[in-house]
Amino acid sequence: MTGDTQFAVGVIGVGNMGSALVRGIIERGTVSAKSVIVCDLVQDLVERICDDMGVVDGTEAAHVAGSADLVVLAAKPQNLPLLLEEISPSINANQTIMSIAAGVTTKSIEESLGGKPSVIRVMPNLPALVGEGIAVMCGGSHAKELDFERVEAVLSAVGVCLKGPEEMMDPVTALSGTGPAYVFHTMEAMIQSGLEMGMPLEMAERLVLHTVFGAAMLAMESDLDPTSLREAVTSRGGTTDAAISHLEENRYTRLVVEAILAAMDRSEELGRGS
């Protein structure tokens, strides 16, 4: 918990990630519902989170920014320049600015806001929706320990929070920020194989979901690394060996690596405004 145990939180953008953060900090008791003020371009999203969690509708971004100790920028990267221009007059040096916009650097946010804003850049991921997210945060040139404490208090309400250097943020975006989609895509392919083998959809989905869940739990709790776990269930000439051999003959590992590198390149492009 932070030094200011009841700091006010303003969330600009309450889509999937913004709303997950709001729900997490209230359900965890990080702050009270009345200490959270929100806004979004889509008013239906605001009304839903206000009705569900009892938070305050701030109506406009500038008002939200001026009403909070911690301002969470949960807007899309391409919308951030105009948003920063709108809220800049409302920001003061005592506030913490937390951005989850992929690719956007702390320096560019500092320059857009002017003065010496305390900026923390964060890359969370979608499992935050169920309290199992993992996020990495890094600080701008004016970030203080209190700023990190505030952000960590929010992120810890929806999962695990790590701290790292900013040069790692684009790789983090590609690996864990985008990572759940790779897992979902693999699950889709596994379910499709079940259907092609004649399984009912419900059975295929249940088998795949629990297999992925169980494998992740085993990897988390085991002393063995993923390579050792895979090797432990791959008997030469067996069914697993047949599947893994086929994957590697078709460059599976390399394709996954190249896909993640493509995501990193796109994160860098977003940071340049491309």
Q: Explain this structure to me?
A:
With 274 residues, the protein is α/β, with parallel strands linked by helices. It folds into two domains: 9-166, NAD(P)-binding Rossmann-like Domain (Rossmann fold, 3-Layer(aba) Sandwich), CATH 3.40.50.720; 179-271, ProC C-terminal domain-like fold (Orthogonal Bundle). It is 52% helix and 13% strand. It contains twelve helices and eight strands. Strands 3-2-1-4-5-6-7-8 form an eight-stranded mixed beta sheet, with helices on both faces. α1 (16-27) links the parallel β1 and β2 (36-39). α7 crosses α12 and α8 crosses α9 (201-221). The longest helix is centred in the last third of the chain and has 21 residues, at 201-221.
Give the tags:
ProC C-terminal domain-like fold, 52% helix, Rossmann fold, 274 residues, alpha/beta, single chain
Question: Summary?
Answer:
The protein has helices at 16-27, 43-53, 61-66, 80-87, 106-113, 145-155, 169-177, 179-196, 201-221, 226-232, 239-249, 252-271, and strands at residues 9-12, 36-39, 56-57, 70-73, 96-99, 118-123, 133-139, 159-163. With 274 residues, it is an alpha/beta fold.
Total number of helices: 12
User: How many strands?
Assistant: 8
Given helix and strand content, the structural type is alpha/beta
Q: What is the overall silhouette?
A: elongated
What string, H for helix and E for strand, traces the elements in order? EHEHEHEHEHEEHEHHHHHH
Provide the CATH superfamily of the largest domain.
Answer: NAD(P)-binding Rossmann-like Domain
Which consecutive residue ranges, at least 5 long each, have pLDDT under 50?
Answer: none
Major β-sheet annotation? 8 strands, mixed
Give the strand line-up of the largest sheet: 3-2-1-4-5-6-7-8
The level of helicity is 40-55%
Our count of domains comes out at 2
Q: How many angstroms does the end-to-end distance come to?
A: 38 Å
Q: Radius of gyration in whole Å, from Cα?
A: 21 Å
CATH class of the largest domain: Alpha Beta
